[in-house]
Amino acid sequence: MIIQQLSIFLENRSGRLTELTETLAEAEINLSALSVADTAEYGIVRAVVSEPEKAREILKSKGFSVSLTDVLCLSTPNTPGALARALRILSDASVSIEYLYAFSMGDRSLAVIKTEHTLHAIRVLEEHEMELVKASDLYKI
Amino acid sequence: MLCREAGRQLQKGDNLIKEADTTAAGVIYWNEEIECISRSDLRKLQSEKLRKMVERIYYNVPFYRKKFDEAGIKPQDVKGVEDLHRLPFTTKQDLRDNYPYSLFAVPMKEIVRVHASSGTTGKSTVVGYTKEDLEIWSEVIARTLTCAGVTSKDVIQVAYGYGLFTGGLGVHYGAEKVGVTVIPISGGNTRRQIQVMRDFGTTALACTPSYALYLAEEMQDQKVRCEDISLRVGIFGAEPWTENMRKEIEQSLSITAIDIYGLSEIIGPGVASECVCQSGLHINEDHFIPEIIDPDTLEPLEEGEKGELVFTTVTKEGLPLLRYRTRDLTSLTYERCECGRTLARMRKCLGRSDDMLIIRGVNVFPSQIEAVLLETSGTKPHYQIIVDRKHNLDTLSLLVEVEEHFLSDEIRKLESMKEKIRHAVESNLGISVNVNLVEPKTIQRSEGKAKRVIDNRNNLQS
């Protein structure tokens, strides 16, 4: 259930994100999810891709500062309160969230969540019968 | 012929100056006997002092005894200044290796004061003074101030930092010796500096030249005009500055800007200073014998040739240094100055023969920043130091490449790393720094090696 997410450090420079996505495109790596966290001088790109290890090697060889981060992906019904319920379970179990990015389409919502102890968070969510997306499924989206 | 400025000082000076020597021609000396000594008498004096100094360091400082023994030189082999070139050099590294007190030539009970340069722990250079050394220091500062036309009628605002840095206290006691009214305001707090300058009737200002420009700018912002203050002369040092900067300072503050030179290892401020003729800095040669060497071959160079300045402190008791390599590049002239002084003059410093940067008067070596990075990040990332001058103040920026082992995908952690580096640089070096995180390989590399320092101040100056 652990998802390997790419984390890439980018300077705030025009065209840099384009270069990143083009590099992945050339290697025929598909993006399942992507989010950019930005500050005044730099940004962190977080991406779930079809082949994380391969993507990392390629990006590294092209001079990007890149690492793999363990995250989990939660799937909830696209209804009011569904995410709130999941987050309540985590906070009751004292699992703090570093960041998350989410999107809904059709009747499902997907949230990529980074917590301090990913395995522990997965166990807590599974105990409460929350639905998690398997890595192999997510990489194929 | 006397230069015009000196003549002007004469009218101001009148006969109220009790302590300084005033000649018939009107030039004011603090110690005419020495400052106008004949070159041959000076050489005799220096030789005599050098012989005694060599004896003192040979018997009291193991570091020097070892160096002499290794070179097969006995103290009695040194007959005079002509033998100086045969003697071993001393470097800043020697001071660090002997941190803190091992080069002192007297027992600690004789040392009444220490000063130190900034540096990472254990790496600063520590200097010690006996009571007699402090006397010498006051004497050379008294000459410096008198040279600049400052007399007991003046009010001096000492805006050099007080503390371990030699600037503040050094100028302070010399000014008191002359009888100048001293305002020991120390550095910083610009608003207060300006208010004090206006309300206390400051006539002389001692600070770094870049701070003088900053003060001038702030005064303009606060609508304080030159007519509102009584300032007429500035004694500026602790960092290199150009003739263009001098013009700018003189115009914006409507003063005479005097260049002074010194370094803590030799004594602090007071090693050399300009007179009002502003044509080279008079070296207090009866205490500090200058030489110019080729920094590569270490061979002495002729008068007028540009090279590295080397000093031998022949009178200092606490920390006497033999042929200390200052790393400052300049040249010497032994011609008598228009002011009548016969002491050798050095040109304004033209640069350095090492990678030391002087930022707001603070000496900074790239290696110190490297040590801080190693300490805070646990690794040695590629970095670049960028020095700029914004609003007449030096700014220091540090670019750090975010390599994989250094990367966190959480902004909070990256920001806290930045803060840690910033704080460590500030507390170790005593200067503020902007830390910028950049992508790997973005720092310009020449021949595979990253360029460690970009000093944009050089482009602004001529």
Briefly summarize what is shown.
The complex is a heterodimer of chains A (141) and B (462). Chain A has five helices and seven strands.
Structure description:
The complex is a heterodimer of chains A (141) and B (462). Chain A has 141 residues and is an alpha+beta fold. Chain A folds into 2 domains: 3-69, 2-Layer Sandwich (VC0802-like), CATH 3.30.2130.10; 71-133, VC0802-like, CATH 3.30.2130.10. Helices cover 33% and strands 40% of the residues of chain A. Chain A contains 5 helices and 7 strands. Chain A has helices at residues 16-26, 52-61, 82-92, 118-127, 135-138, and strands at 3-11, 31-38, 42-49, 65-77, 97-105, 108-115, 131-132. In chain A, strand 2 and strand 3 (42-49) form a beta hairpin. With 462 residues, chain B is an alpha/beta fold. Chain B folds into 2 domains: 4-41 and 115-354, ANL, N-terminal domain (Rossmann fold, 3-Layer(aba) Sandwich); 359-460, GMP Synthetase, Chain A, domain 3 (2-Layer Sandwich), CATH 3.30.300.30. In chain B, strands 6-5-7-8-9-10-11-16-15 form a 9-stranded mixed sheet. In chain B, strands 12-13-14-17 form a 4-stranded antiparallel sheet. The A-B interface holds A 5, 7, 9-11, 37, 39, 41-42, 44, 46, 60, 63-67, 69, 98-99, 114 and B 401-404, 406-407, 409-412, 414-415, 436-442.
